[in-house]
Design goal:
This is assimilatory sulfite reductase (ferredoxin). This protein has helices at about 5-15, 20-25, 30-35, 45-55, 60-65, 90-95, 110-125, 150-155, 190-200, 275-285, 300-305, 305-320, 360-375, 400-405, 415-420, 440-450, 530-545, 555-560, and strands at about 75, 95-105, 110, 130, 140-145, 170-175, 215-220, 230-240, 245-250, 260-270, 340-345, 350-355, 360, 380, 390-395, 420-425, 465, 480-490, 495-500, 520-525, 545-550, 550. The chain is α+β, with helices and mostly antiparallel strands and about 575 residues long. The strands form five sheets. The protein has a five-stranded antiparallel beta sheet. Strands 3-14-15-12-11 form a five-stranded antiparallel beta sheet. The termini are far apart.
C-alpha cells in the first residue's frame, strides 16, 4: 500500500508532543525517563555522601550526564580533542574527569565577601579559573567531585549556591546591574527577584521543565537584561493610569532556531511579578513540548499558539485573573552594559569595567573585592554583557578604583571593541564546541585596537564569538556574530573558523526594535583571519554609511541594506 504525503503528515500530527496537560506524563524519550525516575535535585545527597567519597568513577551515567546539571555541574572537555571530532565522539570520550561549576548569582548582585569567597574557591579548587558569563553567573573549571561538598559549604555560608544553575529548570534570574542605585531607573526590581528565588528556587514542583527556562527583570530604561531572548521577561514601564510596573514578554531564545520574545500586551504590577512568573513557568511545565528536545523550548509553543491564546491560557488556567493591558516600553535611553563611571542617585558612583570577554581569575576576583572594600564599597554587580561593576564608590576614590581595576585586567575606559566583544567558553572547556573562542577574541581585540585606531569616533560595534551553533554568546543579535565551525583556508586545508552573521541587535538607544543578523551564502572567516575581516567590513561601513538628521547610519542598518559584495 502506498502511503501518501498527506497521510504521513496526518500521522505525524497525531503523535503526542509530550505535553503533560494534553498527553499525560508518560515519558517519551530517555531524558524524560531520567527526570521521571528521580528528580534532578535529589542528586545532591549522592554527590555529598557517595560520589565525593568514591570519586569520578563511582558516578552513575544518568547522574553524571543528567542530574548533575541541576546543581550547576557539567563535565568539561578533555584537553587535546580537536573540533572536528566534537560530533563524532561519545560524551565519555569527549569529557574530562573534571567539572565546570556554575555559581548562580541572581540579579548579578554580589557582596565583596561573596566575591572574595568565589575568588578563593577558584584559586584553591579551580586552578584559578573564572569566567563572567553573559548570564551574570561565574563559571569555574577543573573542579573535582571530591571537592564539591566543601565548595557548597563555603558558598552557602555567604548566601550563594549552585542550585538549578543548569538543567531543565528555571535558570539564574537576570536583573538590572544598577537596580536600586541608578538615578534614572523606573523602579527597583530587587524585591521581585529575591522573592522569586525565595519562593521557587529548588521547588520540586518546578524542577522538571521541558527544557531550560530563562528569566530577566529590569526597571532601568536602558533595558539592560537582553529581555527579548529570555523565556519570560519583565521590562519596566510607566502605565498612564496605573503608574510604574512591568511589560510582560515571553518565549525568546536563540540557538539554532532563533526567535525573539514577544509582548503579551499585559501590564504587571511589582507585587504581581512572582505570581506571574510562577504562572508562566507552570504553563511551560504543563504545555511545553517534551517529545523532541530540539522542540522543547517555550518559543516553539508560542509559535504554534500565538500571543492571544498564550495570554488567555496564562490568565484562565494559571493566574486566575486578567492582567490589564499596558503600553510597550519606550526606546532604551542608553547602553545597557554600564561601562564607565556613572553617578548614583545617592551622590556616590558606580564603575563598570570590561575584562577580556569575561575572562578573569580567582586572584583577580579576590583583588577586586579587596579594592572595593578599601574604597568604602562593599557591593559589586555582574552584567549580561560579561562586565563587572563596583558600586557605591565615593567621588574621591573613583580614580583609584579605575586604576586598581585596570591593574587586574578590568578596563573602565575600554576601546570600542574591548567594550563590545563577548565570547562563550569555546573548545577550551566545552564539549559542544568546535573552535576556540576566548583567545581568538582577545587577539582580535588587541589587533583591532591597533588596526582601527585612526577611527577615534567609532561607535562600539558588537562582536560576539561562539564556539558552536548554540549561540551562548548571542551571535544572531550582534553587529558581527561569528558562529564556530571548520572552514577551508586559502590553501584548501580545513581549519577553525566561523560563519558570519551581520546586523543583528537588541532594542537599544540607536535601534527601535530587536532583529536577527543576516548571513551571506559562503561568507566564512578563519579564526586567524578574524581581525582582518572585521577591519575590512568596518572600514567599508565607515566609507559607505549614510548620514541623516538623526546622525550616522548604524552598522546594523548598513549591514542589512549593503550588497553582499560589500560584506565579504
Amino acid at each position: 500500500m502506498t502511503v501518501t504525503p498527506a497521510a504521513r503528515t496526518a500521522a505525524r500530527a497525531s503523535r503526542p508532543n509530550g505535553q503533560w496537560a494534553v498527553d499525560g506524563r508518560a515519558p517519551l524519550n530517555a531524558n524524560e525517563e531520567m527526570k521521571a525516575a528521580d528528580n534532578g535535585l535529589n542528586v545532591r545527597d549522592r554527590i555529598e555522601n557517595v560520589y565525593a567519597a568514591g570519586g569520578f568513577d563511582s558516578i552513575t551515567d544518568e547522574d553524571l550526564h543528567g542530574r548533575f546539571r541541576w546543581w550547576g555541574l557539567y563535565t568539561q572537555r578533555k584537553p587535546g580533542i580537536d573540533g572536528g571530532r566534537t560530533a563524532t565522539l561519545e560524551p565519555h570520550e569527549l569529557e574530562d574527569r573534571y567539572f565546570m561549576l556554575r555559581v548562580r548569582i541572581d540579579g548579578g548582585a554580589l557582596t565583596t565577601e561573596q566575591l572574595r569567597t568565589i575568588g578563593a574557591i577558584s584559586t584553591e579548587f579551580g586552578r584559578g579559573t573564572a569566567d563572567i558569563t553573559d548570564r551574570q553567573n561565574i563559571q569555574l573549571h577543573w573542579i573535582r567531585v571530591e571537592d564539591v561538598p566543601e565548595i557548597w559549604r563555603r558558598l552557602e555560608a555567604v548566601g550563594l549556591s549552585t542550585t538549578e544553575a543548569c538543567g531543565d529548570v528555571p535558570r539564574v534570574i537576570l536583573g538590572s546591574p544598577v537596580a536600586g542605585i541608578a538615578a534614572d531607573e523606573i523602579l527597583d526590581p530587587t524585591w521581585a527577584i529575591h522573592e522569586i528565588a525565595r519562593r521557587y528556587l529548588g521547588d520540586l514542583e518546578l524542577s522538571n521543565l521541558p527544557r531550560k527556562f530563562k528569566t530577566a527583570v529590569t526597571g532601568h530604561p536602558s533595558q539592560d537584561v537582553v529581555h527579548q531572548i529570555n523565556d519570560v521577561a519583565f521590562v519596566g514601564i510607566v502605565h498612564p493610569e496605573l503608574g510604574p510596573g512591568f511589560d510582560l514578554w515571553v518565549a525568546g531564545a536563540l540557538s539554532v532556531a532563533p526567535r525573539l520574545g514577544e509582548r503579551l500586551g499585559a501590564f504587571v504590577r511589582e507585587e504581581q511579578v512572582p505570581d506571574v512568573w510562577a504562572a508562566v513557568t507552570a504553563l511551560f511545565r504543563d504545555y511545553g513540548y517534551r517529545r523532541l528536545r530540539n522542540k522543547a523550548r517555550l518559543k516553539f509553543l508560542l509559535a504554534d499558539w500565538g500571543t492571544a491564546k498564550f495570554r488567555q491560557i496564562l490568565q484562565d488556567e494559571f493566574l486566575g485573573y486578567e492582567l490589564p493591558d499596558g503600553p510597550p516600553p519606550p526606546r532604551p535611553t542608553r547602553s545597557g552594559d554600564h561601562v564607565g563611571v556613572h553617578a548614583q542617585k545617592d551622590g556616590r558612583f558606580y564603575i563598570g569595567a570590561a575584562p577580556y570577554v569575561g575572562r578573569v581569575s580567582g586572584p583577580d576576583l579576590t583583588a577586586v573585592a579587596d579594592l572595593a572594600d578599601a574604597a568604602g564599597s562593599h557591593r559589586v554587580r555582574l552584567t549580561p554583557y560579561q562586565k563587572l561593576l563596583v558600586l557605591d564608590v565615593p567621588a574621591d576614590q573613583v580614580a583609584a578604583v579605575v586604576t586598581g581595576l585596570r591593574a587586574h585586567g578590568l578596563e573602565a575606559e575600554p576601546s570600542p571593541f574591548r567594550q563590545s566583544t563577548i565570547a562563550c567558553t569555546g573548545i577550551e572547556f566545552c564539549k559542544l564546541a568546535i573552535v576556540e573562542t576566548k583567545v581568538p577574541a582577545m587577539r582580535a581585540i588587541d589587533s583591532l585596537e591597533a588596526r582601527l585606531g585612526d577611527l577615534s569616533q567609532l561607535t562600539p560595534i558588537s562582536l560576539h564569538i561562539n564556539g558552536c551553533p548554540n549561540s551562548c554568546a548571542r551571535i544572531q543579535t550582534a553587529d558581527i556574530g561569528l558562529k564556530g565551525q571548520l572552514v577551508m583556508d586559502d590553501d584548501g586545508a580545513q581549519v577553525p573558523g566561523y560563519q558570519v552573521h551581520l546586523g543583528g541587535g537588541l532594542a537599544s538607544a540607536d535601534r527601535d526594535e530587536a532583529g536577527l543578523g543576516r548571513t551571506v551564502r559562503g561568507l566564512k572567516v578563519t579564526a586567524e583571519g578574524t581581525a582582518e575581516y572585521v577591519e575590512r567590513v568596518v572600514r567599508r561601513y565607515v566609507a559607505d554609511r549614510e548620514t541623516t538628521a538623526a546622525g550616522p547610519e548604524t552598522f546594523a542598518a548598513w549591514a542589512h541594506r549593503a550588497d553582499e559584495e560589500a560584506l565579504q
